[in-house]
Specification:
Length: 326
């Protein structure tokens, strides 16, 4: 059996940071940010009540409510996060406690930058397909602002915070999980952030800056507009579906509207099939896809039986895509 998404939930922090707010602290403008990225505003966590673990719990509770299940039915929780507030315990164990899941529920976290949600989703599906789980929670939660260098105008304006979650339940009528996952570690230097907890290096020149997100923006942009369309084409060939006729929506990682537009153009698919919420949230890394799914459901734009392509890309470099029936 393969799993079907039966519930979706999201949490975004209350504080909104607009492009004009950035223009007050950096040499930038609403016009530059909007034109280059499509972002108008993003949500910033307060870092006290809104942490990756607490936001993961909030999104999970909403997904469980949406699914209409008892938390005791959940037998696997996987949280994708690259910006955790906790090293131990895993955030999935915090979620387990806070939602009241049972003791024999498997819990672990995965880290794969922006494609983390898809990595977590494929992990959950593998557990379900191997008969090791029936009902799973798959969460993406990020506090990117903990890792932004607010003096680096080319990077910090891109990111926001938040969490999204889905409940995936084994369904005998579901087709096998169809996906491709790719990585290229030789291009790791394009997007980096070193762990701050390395006391032997604290006096090293440049170490403080290295512990914030560093990004070669143009290189990442070129990578995304080349590899993401190729990946989606390869997915359609591998699983024998037609991109025009057999896909209702393309749910892409929300990193830059120009990347999404370029992908649609290269695939020859109308941009109306590529929903976006980047203007409101910026790049929320592994949370961007489940938050977008949650909004589409709330707006009545996501209906049972719809065929979706999910695709994400980011640090690693890593890029993944799935073909799913909602
Ligand atoms: N405001 C005003 N000017 C700026 C800003 C800013 N916020 N940021 C950079 N500039 C300037 C630069 O200094 C440069 O000036 P110069 O020509 O005088 O040197 C000029 O604008 C152009 O800079 P570029 O970096 O070349 O601008 P580009 O058009 O490439 O846009 C951007 C930058 C938006 C970051 C783009 O490259 C991008 O979106 N890249 C992809 C990022 C991404 O998708 N990351 C996803 C993965 S994230 C993860 O995995 C954690």
């Amino acid at each position: 059996m393969t799993g079907r998404i039966i519930g979706i939930g999201a949490y975004v922090p209350k504080k909104v940071m607009t492009n004009d707010d950035f223009a007050k602290i950096l040499d930038t403008s609403d016009e530059w940010i909007t034109e280059r990225t499509g972002i108008k505003e993003r949500h910033f966590a307060d870092h006290i009540t809104e942490k990756p673990s607490t936001m993961a719990v909030a999104a999970a509770k909403k997904a469980i409510e949406d699914a209409g299940i008892d938390p005791k039915d959940i037998d696997l929780i996987v949280v994708a996060c690259t910006t955790p507030d906790l090293v131990i315990p895993t955030m999935s164990c915090v979620v387990q406690k806070e939602i009241g899941a049972k003791e024999d529920c498997g819990c672990f976290d995965v880290s794969s930058a922006c494609p983390g949600f898809i990595a977590a989703y494929n992990t959950v599906q593998s557990f379900i397909e191997s008969g090791n789980a029936k009902t799973a929670l798959c969460i993406g939660s990020e506090c990117n602002t903990n890792f932004c260098n607010f003096e680096d105008r080319g990077t910090c304006i891109l990111f926001g915070d938040g969490a999204g979650a889905v409940v995936v339940r084994a369904d005998e009528n579901c087709k096998r999980n169809e996906f491709i996952m790719r990585s290229d570690g030789s291009r790791a230097d394009c997007l980096t952030c070193e762990a701050a907890r390395q006391p032997d290096r604290w006096d090293e020149e440049g170490f403080k800056e290295a512990t914030s997100f560093y990004m070669q923006g143009r290189e990442v942009f070129k990578f995304a507009v080349t590899e993401v369309p190729r990946l989606i084409k390869d997915l359609s060939e591998k699983y024998n579906f037609d991109l025009e006729k057999d896909v209702d929506l393309f749910i892409l990682h929300q990193a830059n509207s120009r990347i999404i537009e370029a992908t649609a153009k290269k695939l020859g698919i109308g941009i109306e099939k590529f929903p976006m919420n980047i203007m409101k949230y910026g790049n929320i890394s592994s949370a961007s896809i489940p938050i977008l799914l949650s909004e589409l459901k709330a707006e009545g734009k996501l209906k049972p039986g719809m065929k979706l392509v999910l695709a994400s890309f980011g640090a690693g470099l890593t890029w993944n895509a799935n073909y799913i029936t909602y």
